[in-house]
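queue> holo job accepted (6-O-phosphoryl inosine monophosphate)
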Amino acid sequence: MNTVLVGAQWGDEGKGKVIDFLTEESDVVVRFQGGSNAGHTVVVGDKKYVLHLVPSGILHDGKHCVIGNGVVMDPFDLMRELEQVESWGFELKGRFHISERAQMVMQWHRALDKAEEAARPDGKKIGTTGRGIGPAYAAKVGRYGMRVGDILKPDFTDLVRDQVEDANRKLVALGAQPLDADEMVRLYTPMVAALMPYVTDTIQFLHEKLESKKSILFEGAQATMLDIDFGTYPFVTSSNPTAGGACTGSGVSPRAIDRVIGVVKLYTTRVGEGPFPTELFDADGETLRTRGGEFGATTGRPRRCGWFDAVVARYAQRVNGVDFWAMTKLDVLDTFPVVKICTGYRRDDGFVYTTFPADLAALKRCTPVYEEMPGWQCETSHITSYDALPANAKAYIARILELIGGKLGVLSVGPARETTLRINV
Ligand code: GDP
Ligand code: IMO
Ligand code: MG
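queue> job finished
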């Protein structure tokens, strides 16, 4: 069984937790896009692990973890994270693999990310994570990027010098400090030896696994509404976190994918700038943020919070072909007397959108249309079976499923590993 897992909102849906849960029955976990902009949290006992580049399957000894060709990888972030994983007591040898086709995020991409963001006027800022993601993908698509395989080539230092020179022209034009090419060469030379043991042809590796009927789990980072094509462009990330990205970012064909799992929080959050129709600016929003611990796992920024948006989730169901949903953070809603579901966006001229519009100016003229349901006002985090849920919580979930399509596969009622209910998967 090969599974693609994707975020269905604006990220931070709890993908890391669900990946950790599904890794038990998988042999290989693959990251196929994004980079260290991701922050995936897994809580085991009283320990909290946050992973950025390394697949969340790493916390299960013996499982293989792959950084696929679609990822943009900052070697410094990666090395720091690998050291951390080892300090937590997990073995990496023989089970962590990096595609030689993956793109590198270099210091100049990070500098450009910050300089470009600083140069954007208010209203146009994206609120990036500052991890160099946009400039690294721009370099890839512009065909002047640096691939992991390039670090093993004899002309690596010339390539670094060329790239720094090119980036410096842009940095200076943006009013930022240029970088020193010699220093960059010095900085990156030791990386070669450090990364070498992990670099391999991951396409060949994954196909060998497929041929021996091993099961592969594709770990999406970011989410559908941050997708460069399907998200709230230009307030998006620079990759395809949607299900199609699993194939282009790994070298595995769509015919090998057996199912798609979408992860949704039972409310909505967003970090960074851009449209968010159900955003709350009142006490309810504050309650979601406080009870949900809604602060970024990568940047620590407070996340914007709002009601569940069925327009977004329905759109994500279609774009990704979600078979099963992993619904998370039910427990965060436990105290609300009333819970709301957004079913459409009403424009100021009366027109109601029931699918997500591409035109963000039109979206600005809209207000959400809500259905209200009674809350359950009791604790759910100790509950271990779907049947034992309060009737109003079941009704809330059932109404959401009716609106968005797909089946319920996993329900999460707390941050810890054991607070995960298997329903249909
Ligand atoms: P990801 O980026 O999709 O992996 O999600 P993050 O790790 O950035 O954010 C999800 C946060 O919610 C983490 O702090 C998780 O520990 C936490 N979390 C996940 N599922 C649940 C849940 O069902 N209930 C609660 N209260 N917290 C959860
Ligand atoms: P996970 O995998 C939430 C957001 C940033 C910004 C926009 C572009 O943890 O769900 P970027 O640095 O990618 O160029 O920033 O995307 N963003 C995320 N938001 N979760 C993430 O990852 C995100 N990765 C990027 O806040 O708005
Ligand atoms: Mg996150």
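queue> The radius of gyration is 21 Å.
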